[in-house]
Structures are given as structure tokens and as C-alpha cells.
Amino acid sequence: MVKAIVPGTFDPITNGHLDVVARASNMFDEVVIAVASSHKKRPLFSLEERIALANQAVSEMKGLKNVSVVGFDDLLISFAHQIGADVVVKGLRAITDFEYEFQMTAANYQMDPSLETMFIMSPPHYMYLSSSIVREIASFGGDVAGIVPPCVDAALKNKLS
């Protein structure tokens, strides 16, 4: 039984994030979406809201029976040990993502060489997509319905109105 962890701030979770999760769910026995508290980023949504949105988004997708959502406020390595994760799955959109994730993977490897990291490339239609872009578009009243789950679209409209 191989357990994977897909960590992130998910402020908010996007269809790009869900694409990575869905693809990971086809490769691993169990997938945990690990929602980081990320206090330094000053997220728009609270940790509890981000967990609830991720749970709702996952429940609305078909075939994600092996996916769960958990919040954490710790080093990723420590949290991975707590839940018994074998691999960290990260999505990559562009070369800048690779550079950052390469550094994070190297640091994680120094702390625990047994925890593997796997990268999943975004399909072209999600390569531009980030939570920051979603928040920016939504803050100006733009339509984000095609790039976030319906629950996130509604939550953004409610939060920003």
C-alpha cells in the first residue's frame, strides 16, 4: 500500500490542483491532499475554509474514493511521517516551478532520503493556472468558473463581495 501526499496552500484549490490529485489517485493506493496553514502567505481563505473547499471539490469529482484532505502546520517531512506517506507529489507548470520544487526536494532529501518526490506535469490548458491568478481575476469580478470547481467559484464570489 503506497500513500502519496499532495501538499500545497490551495488558496483556493483550482482545477489544475485537482488534475494533479486525480492523476495521482490513479497511481497510488491512497492520496492525501495536505493543506498547509501557510500563515506567512496571508491566505484569503482560512485553513478551515481551504480544507472544506478541497473536501467539497473532491467529493464532487467521480472516482476519487482514495483521496482525503487534511490540514497541517508543520514541516512537510514531519507531517509526511505523521501520516505515513511514502511519496510527495507535486505539480509542475513551468520552469520556474521546477527550480523552486527542485530546491524543496533537495532540502527534503537532506532531512529524509527515504521520502520520494514525484512531479506531475500540468497539461497545457492548466500551465498558466495558479491560485494567485484565480484570486486576481476574481478580485476584479472576472469569471473563474472554468478554472475552479463550482464550490470555489461560489466561495470566491461570497468572500469578495
Give the terminus-to-terminus CA distance: 45 Å
Mean pLDDT: 95
- Biggest sheet architecture: 5 strands, parallel
**Uncertain segments:** none
Q: What radius of gyration results from the CA coordinates?
A: 15 Å
Return the string of H and E elements.
EHEHEHEHEHH
Give the quaternary arrangement of the chains: single chain
Portion of residues in beta strands equals 15-25%
Label the structural class: alpha/beta
Question: What's the overall geometry?
Answer: globular
The count of strands amounts to 5
Number of helices: 6
* Helix coverage percent: 40-55%
Biggest sheet strand line-up:
3-2-1-4-5
How would you describe the overall organization of this protein?
The model has no long low-confidence stretch (mean pLDDT 95). It contains six helices and five strands; from the N terminus they run βαβαβαβαβαα. The chain has a five-stranded parallel sheet with strand order 3-2-1-4-5, sandwiched between helices. Helices cover 43% and strands 19% of the residues. The termini are far apart. The radius of gyration is 15 Å and the shape is globular. By secondary structure, it is α/β, with parallel strands linked by helices.
Topology diagram in text:
Layout: E1 3-8, H1 15-25, E2 30-36, H2 47-60, E3 67-72, H3 76-83, E4 87-92, H4 95-111, E5 116-121, H5 131-139, H6 150-160
Parallel strand pairs: 1-2, 1-4, 2-3, 4-5
Summarize the structure.
The chain is α/β, with parallel strands linked by helices and 161 residues long.
